[in-house]
Design a protein that fits this description.
With 334 residues, the protein is of the alpha/beta class. It contains 13 helices and nine strands. It has helices at residues 29-41, 63-69, 86-96, 112-115, 118-125, 127-131, 148-156, 198-207, 217-231, 233-240, 249-260, 271-283, 295-333, and strands at 2-6, 9-17, 20-24, 47-53, 74-79, 102-106, 136-141, 174-177, 182-186. It has a six-stranded mixed β-sheet, sandwiched between helices. Strands 1-2-3 form a three-stranded antiparallel β-sheet.
Length: 334
């Protein structure tokens, strides 16, 4: 188990078995409290805005958002689109908009004009509020570190929400009147209690949604390297001046280490340094515009997650049944 320190509190973050990320388990008290607050406020909300990472729309999507918003209209903002593969982002927009009442839009907070178009999207999705000249009551949601606070500050035209490159910066819910017919309820960044999809856990780590000090760099970089070799071999070769494509993630990291002089005494490759190079250059867009998942991948993984969840539920029910039988046996003996 790896831990993270958030404002003096030690919280479980990752379950790691034999060096592998197995699941994210991070559900501190303030997030449980936030969910209860959202459930209480949601009946008064007209529209939900969910912020996703354009490089990992499936993995950065919080399953609780769909549960909490019900049938309310939803704008899904694919933020950091300036770092994502534009062709894959187009696929995601089309895929997400298949859901009733959902409008998806690719944005980047580096272009404030894109963010300032959000109120117009809100009005299109909830036209009846404009007709009766009532403010549109919106709620903005998203997992930590997807750029939610920067979006709020841009919309408000002033610094309201604290920004930072770490999870759990926003701690309390607040209402912000944008004074343009939109009232925005901010929520703390909510990370689900557990990610049952191992690949999603890795993708969150690759993008930096998880604090770097709480992960095994080499392990996460190998996950990224394996995917890049399959999905973006030309871009990897061009960035690191590689003539012959390596056969494995390990070989790619070694080649990056050789090309960039990431060496230990005796000429051995410094895999940790090579891993840092790959991850940091992906996050900054220096390798190119890369996405880590596609809608087709998400569909396959959703089926697998459902299978895992069904197995866990069966195991839970079996355990419960055995417990009842034991209790019944004890009563008979008594």
């Amino acid at each position: 188990m790896l831990f993270i320190k958030v404002q003096g509190t030690i919280l479980p973050l990752l379950t790691v078995v034999k060096g592998k990320i197995m699941a994210i388990q991070w559900y501190p008290g303030h997030m449980h409290k936030a969910r209860k607050e959202i459930e209480e406020v949601m009946p008064q909300v007209d529209l939900v805005i969910e912020v996703l990472d354009a490089r990992i729309p499936y993995s950065s999507e919080n399953p609780m958002v769909a549960q909490l918003r019900g049938d309310k209209p939803c704008i899904k903002l694919l933020n950091k689109s300036d770092l994502a593969d534009p062709k894959v982002t187009e696929q995601w927009i089309e895929y997400l908009e298949r859901e009733q009442g959902v409008k998806a839009s690719a944005i980047t907070t580096l272009q404030p004009a894109m963010v300032r178009m959000i109120p117009d999207l809100c009005r299109k999705l909830v036209p009846h509020r404009d007709v009766i000249e009532k403010d549109i009551r919106t709620m903005i949601m998203g997992i930590p570190n997807v750029g939610k606070s920067t979006i709020i500050n841009t919309l408000a035209g002033r610094v309201i929400a604290k920004t930072g490159n770490e999870p759990a910066v926003t701690k309390t819910q607040q209402r912000i009147n944008l004074r343009n017919g939109i009232v925005l309820s901010d929520t703390p960044g909510i990370l689900w209690p557990k990610v049952d999809n191992e690949a999603s856990s890795y993708r969150l780590a690759v993008t930096g949604a998880i604090k770097d000090t709480a992960m095994e760099y080499e392990d996460v970089a190998m996950f990224a390297a394996e995917y890049f070799l399959k999905a973006y071999p030309e871009m990897i070769c061009e960035r690191y001046k590689i003539d012959n494509l390596p056969n494995s993630d390990f070989e790619l990291l070694e080649e990056i280490g050789r090309k960039r002089g990431a060496l230990r005494p005796g000429g051995r490759i410094d895999l940790h340094k090579a891993s840092e190079l790959l991850l940091h250059e992906f996050r900054s867009g220096k390798i190119g515009l890369l996405s880590l998942e596609t809608p087709a991948m998400a569909e396959i993984e959703k089926i697998e997650v459902e299978r895992i969840m069904a197995e866990k539920e069966q195991a839970r029910l079996k355990k419960l049944e055995l417990s009842k039988l034991k209790q019944s046996g004890k009563r008979h003996q008594g």
